Amino acid sequence: MKVTVDGNQAAAYAAYAFTEVAAIYPITPSTPMAELTDEWSAQGKTNIFGQRVKVAEMQSEAGAAGAMHGSLSAGALTTTFTASQGLLLMIPNLYKMAGELLPGVLHVSARAIATHALSIFGDHQDVMACRQTGACLLASSNPQEATDLGFVAHLSAISASLPFIHFFDGFRTSHEYRNVDQPDYDVVKPLLDWEALQEFRRRALHPSAPVAKGTAQNPDVYFQGREVQNPYFARVPDIVENYMKRYGEVTGRSYGLFDYYGAEDAEHVIVAMGSVCDTIKETIDFLAHKGEKAGLIQVRLYRPFSEKHFLAALPKTVKRIAVLDRTKEPGAPGEPLYLDVCNVFLGKENPPLIVGGRYGLGSKDTTPPQILAVYNNLKAKTPKNGFTIGITDDVTNTSLPEDDSYTPLEDGTVSCLFWGLGSDGTVGANKSACKIIGDHTDLNVQAYFSYDSKKSGGTTISHLRFGKNPIRSAYLVQKADYVACHNKSFLNNYDLTRNLKPGGIFVLNCDYSPLTVKDHLPAKLKRFMAQNDIKFYIIDAEKIASEVGLGNRINMIMQSVFFQLVGVIPSDEAIRLLKESIHKAYGRKGKEIEQMNFEAVDRAVDALVPVVVPPEWAKAKDEEPA
């Protein structure tokens, strides 16, 4: 079944199938997974066992992990959702779950750790702090994989009798909307290892079948007890690979522990995991179009790290490897994934030259020009090791210069940018637009929302792409066909059109008339529009919202404008679908609210005013505002 959802919902859908108890505590950006699980349970949704999930919200992440450990000990399949410091609070219980062979699953929207400053945004610092616990680590790159590998994580945990951390990039994947194919639970249910599940149940604490747990051990046996678990971890790669293969047979989407993408005889290869892999694939296609060969090893099962499977995926022609880590370990000789790859080639004959670098900390955007810089570094006579991309490091000089030769291959994808104010409804409107396009056309869609930490009251930039081809651009829109400014106060504070393509559309929500709007536009904006043949429109959305009783909620008005100008769906059909989405969103709030939004949509069509951009704007001179 095709649905348009974000990464959190995609993972939660998979988790619900194999969960009997969910022990939760909210933390950004993982909260929606727990909220959806709670909501579905309240609505009576059942898992593959025909049960509603029992949801228990604790008083901290440490409590959630303790409840998870206890619930697993009692024989219930248990799940939690977390990120960042929340995951760190679960580490003591992760050691216990792994040591006691308990198949719990943690779905983690990987997020930065508070160090010199707190960041609510994404990187891999939190999950990397768990790699020594004995929990298996499985990485997804986009919302589709969050569903698919979410199922694989639960199936594998049960067969392996070990806890799994299924992680994906916070915000970049957790809050990114895409078309996702969600298999029915009945399709996945036959893959379950019922014998392993029964064995897990048999080991549960029960008065009639007592077992000793949580003992204290002395030097005579503790070491042996740690080593005797080795066969369990040795089996994990084959178990996960088997489930990936079987899952592929029933869904048509197959994965490997390490997947290779690129030229079969590439000499330069990047090793990475997470959302950056889609960006790297796009860059490889660009290089192939120019006649250059490059490759990517995409890591999915990070722990246990299977040297055998890694080498099987790597082309024999490889001479140089760049390993990208989305984390930083100060004082270490290299970041974790880099050291693992170096270890693979230890003692091997004619090993490739291996360098490592850092990228994307705190959700720093990672773009194709930065990936090109990594490949350029590999071609250098002496490639830089310990490099960074995406920043300019003028302190320790680790950064690589971006390669601006990148131009996206034309594939018919339409890109849009919407500048809004937190709580004005812009983000919600674009989520609705994404769902309407994704659910009612044959187009692929992607929507990502760039917030600042203030959220309500802060600036939001919505990045929307749609087209007939798969969308792999896991980075912010760089060149837009459509830009909308939903708040006139942004005019003198942001370069709103810096990403607008020549011949594109610019829409401004303001209370200016076509005759007076010129007095309020900065000279730079005027010059750009005149020099690049921009189609300019204005609308007083605030006036309409106020008159129909919506206050400052201009979202439906601006969404109506978007559908009218972009033409992705015929105008009448778009209005009908928009009103259906309003009924779903606001119907339960009463007929009056619903009617207000209907009226706002209808009035927007007539209130949109085109503005002629005069040629003399091309010579507009900069002036300081009065």
Number of helical elements: 21
Give the terminus-to-terminus CA distance.
57 Å
Give the mean pLDDT: 94
Q: Assembly state here? A: single chain
Largest sheet: 9 strands, mixed
Helix content: 25-40%
Using the alpha-carbon principal axes, give the shape.
Answer: globular
Number of strands: 22
Question: Which spans have pLDDT < 50 for at least 5 consecutive residues?
Answer: none
Strand neighbour order, sheet with most strands: 1-8-17-18-16-19-20-21-22
**Could you tell me the radius of gyration in angstroms?**
26 Å
Strand content: 15-25%
Structural class, from helix and strand content?
alpha/beta
Question: What do these coordinates show?
Answer:
This protein has 626 residues and is α/β, with parallel strands linked by helices. 37% of the residues lie in helices and 19% in strands. The protein is built from 21 helices and 22 strands. The strands form three sheets. Strands 1-8-17-18-16-19-20-21-22 form a nine-stranded mixed beta sheet, with helices on both faces. It has a seven-stranded mixed beta sheet with strand order 3-2-4-5-7-6-12, sandwiched between helices. Helix 14 links the parallel strand 13 and strand 14 (353-358). Helix 20 (571-586) runs antiparallel to helix 21 (591-607). The N and C termini lie far apart (57 Å).
